């Protein structure tokens, strides 16, 4: 077993970006525009461009007075994401994008196209402070939280791509870089903008949004009280505290039982099935007894409102962590199901091009134009 990792919630290394339109409430937008000499209806007009037409450049908003567009751009639309590189795989069905933020921070997102849906995996932090030893992002540490605008603009950019392809973006998963619930207020604000109908948001169903967490139990309970119907995904990775203290160091603060109790509260409040994420690691967490214990604990804590997503580990270069062989994977699934808990193996995409979250960003200084791209290749199961 690996040595325990001491968890440190390090302070972000950089400041937040300039204020963007999506960082503001409707009242704040009206106030900002009023200072530019523009009437309040312009706020709704601009919102329809951004959320309905996926436009982030006021120069294209031709129903704004020509003399106002530059002022609006300067005041409300700073450039948040600059494309560094995009890489396609899976015959063009998967696009991994690397973005540079205005302070030079690197950010990742992944757009995955399926026959029946399109899913965008987005980041909520630049880097991550959770220190999970098998995760490339966790090993790199935390640069800073993302602003609401930086989260939302990942969605707008992907929605614009899908629109240009004659399709639409249908699903959002917060499974990219970072721990979403460690950036709680901005993530919840972003979720509301993602899910509200235009002109307040992109109109994606809350049931098609997944928020992932390593298990910040108090924040899970707080999210339950938001009265939303997004899917909660908990990265559990083992059913016993002894190993989880090592694999997911935040377990030293919130035990598995505390996390499962919070997840049960979320399921009760939302009526939604909780997704349990379990990265299967060779000779570490893939034993028969752990499969049996996982199924038993989940059945007792959540009953039918739980589903296990078994994730074949995608090792990072030089890592000692490796994926379990197929026969162990199949047996693990069989044993969890035998305990009365649904369990499937996650369909992963883009594995040949640094699919692990944070992996390509970690290679950033070696790639073209200062960076190579990466993001999570994890395709969520629709619950």
Q: If you had to describe this structure to a student in words, what would you say it looks like?
A:
It is a single chain. This protein is of the alpha/beta class and 383 residues long. The protein has two domains: 21-76, DNA polymerase, domain 1, CATH 1.10.150.530; 82-370, Aldolase class I (TIM Barrel, Alpha-Beta Barrel), CATH 3.20.20.70. It has twelve helices and twelve strands. It has helices at residues 26-35, 41-53, 66-76, 136-140, 148-164, 184-195, 217-224, 241-247, 256-270, 288-302, 326-338, 359-362; strands at residues 82-89, 94-100, 106-113, 118-121, 125-127, 142-145, 171-174, 209-213, 231-235, 274-280, 306-312, 342-345. The strands form two sheets. The protein has a ten-stranded mixed sheet, with helices on one face. The protein has a two-stranded antiparallel sheet with strand order 5-6. Strand 8, helix 7 and strand 9 (231-235) form a beta-alpha-beta unit. Helix 1 (26-35) packs across helix 2 (41-53) and helix 10 (288-302) runs parallel beside helix 11 (326-338). The chain is elongated, with a radius of gyration of 21 Å. Mean pLDDT is 89; it is low at 1-12 and 365-383.
């Amino acid at each position: 077993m690996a040595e325990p990792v001491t968890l440190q919630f390090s302070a972000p290394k950089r400041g937040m970006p300039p204020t963007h339109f999506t960082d503001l409430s409707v009242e704040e937008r009206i106030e900002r525009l009023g200072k530019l000499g523009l009437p309040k209806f312009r706020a709704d007009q601009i919102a329809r461009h951004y959320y309905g037409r996926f436009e982030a450049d006021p120069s294209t908003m031709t129903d704004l007075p020509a003399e106002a567009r530059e002022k609006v751009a300067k005041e409300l639309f700073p450039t948040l994401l600059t494309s560094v590189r995009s890489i396609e795989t899976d015959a063009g069905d998967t696009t991994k994008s690397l973005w540079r933020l205005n302070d030079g921070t690197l950010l990742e997102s992944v757009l995955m196209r399926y026959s029946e849906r399109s899913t965008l995996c987005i980041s909520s932090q630049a880097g991550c402070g959770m220190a999970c030893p098998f995760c490339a992002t966790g090993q790199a540490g935390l640069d800073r939280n993302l602003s609401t605008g930086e989260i939302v603009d990942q969605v707008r950019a992907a929605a614009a791509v899908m629109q240009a392809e004659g399709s639409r973006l249908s699903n959002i998963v917060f499974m990219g870089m970072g721990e979403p619930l460690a950036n709680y207020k901005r993530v919840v604000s972003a979720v509301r903008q993602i899910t509200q109908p235009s002109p307040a948001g992109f109109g994606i169903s809350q049931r098609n949004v997944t928020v992932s967490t390593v298990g910040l139990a108090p924040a899970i309970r707080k999210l339950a009280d938001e009265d939303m119907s997004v899917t909660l995904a908990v990265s559990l990775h083992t059913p016993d505290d002894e190993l989880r203290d090592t694999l997911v160091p935040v377990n030293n603060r919130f035990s598995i039982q505390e996390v499962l109790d919070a997840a049960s509260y979320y399921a009760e409040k939302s009526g939604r099935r909780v997704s349990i994420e379990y990265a299967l690691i060779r000779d570490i967490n893939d034993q028969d007894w752990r499969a049996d214990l996982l199924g038993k604990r989940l059945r007792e804590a959540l009953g039918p409102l739980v589903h296990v997503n078994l994730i074949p580990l995608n090792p990072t270069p030089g890592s000692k962590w490796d994926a379990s062989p197929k026969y162990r994977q199949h047996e693990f699934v069989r044993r969890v199901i035998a305990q009365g808990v649904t369990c499937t193996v996650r369909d992963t995409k883009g594995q040949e091009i640094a699919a692990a979250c944070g992996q390509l960003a970690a290679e950033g200084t070696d790639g073209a134009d200062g960076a190579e791209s990466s993001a999570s290749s994890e395709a969520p199961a629709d619950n």
